[in-house]
Design a protein that fits this description.
single chain, alpha/beta, Rossmann fold, five-stranded parallel β-sheet, three-stranded antiparallel β-sheet, 10 helices, 50% helix, globular, binds 2'-deoxycytidine-5'-monophosphate
Length: 234
Amino acid sequence: MSKTIRIAIDGPAGAGKSTIAKYLSKKLGFVYIDTGAMYRATGLFMVRKKIALENENEVVASMDGVGIVLRHDGADGTQQIFLNGEDVSKQIRTEEVGKAASVISAYPQVRAKLTAQQQKLASEESVVMDGRDIGTVVLPEAELKIFLTASARARARRRFLELREKGVAAELSEIERDMEERDKRDSERSAAPLKQAEDAILLDSSDLTIDEVVERIEGLLQEKGLLAEKAAEA
Ligand code: DC
C-alpha cells in the first residue's frame, strides 16, 4: 500500500499560504485542502441566516445545517467549495465573510466538526493542507510542517494588490488594521490558536517570490527523503 504524505502549512492571513499550497500541490500531484475556505463557508452560512456571530450557543446550534463539500480539479489543482450543494467559492472571499469566519472559528464545537472532516480528507490521499492549526491540531503527525509568515506590511500589500486586481476598491491602511485584528483574534483564542508547531519550519516570505518559497519547501521534502519516496512509488 502506498504511503500518503501530509504537508501542513500554517500562518497568519496574507502570508501566501494558499498561493504556495496550490502551487506545491499541483507540482507534487497532491490534493490541496484550503481549510480557511471551510471556516469561511461556515461563516457565510451564519451571515446569510442572520445568526448573531458573537452568540456561541446560537452559532453552535445551527451547525447541523452546515454541509460542506470540497471538490478538486486534479488537472489544475483548483478547488471548489460547496455549501449545502451551492458553489460558494467566490462568495466566501469577501472581507465580511473572512471576519465572520475568524469569529466563529473560535468556538470549539465549530472547530470539532471541521477538524474531523479535514482529518478524514487527509487520511485518503497525499495532501497539502493550509490553515491555522494544521500542524498543531489537525495533522500533528504531518510529514512536513511549515509555518509561513511575512511582515504585516508585506501581507497587507499583497491583499491590497489581490483586491485591486479583482477591481475591489480598498485602503492599504484599512487592510493592515483588519488583518492585525484578525490575526490577534486567531492567535489569542483558546481553541486551537494560530501558533507555530514545535516541529514546524519557519519560513518568512516577505522578501521571497512564490518560486523561491516553493523551492525551499521542495528542498525540505528532499532532505526528509519524501520526494524520493514519491518518485519511487510512481
Ligand atoms: O485563511 P483564511 O483567511 O481563508 O481563513 C479564514 C478564517 O478562518 C481565519 O481568520 C481563521 C479561521 N481558520 C481557522 O481558525 N483555522 C483554520 N485551520 C483555517 C482558518
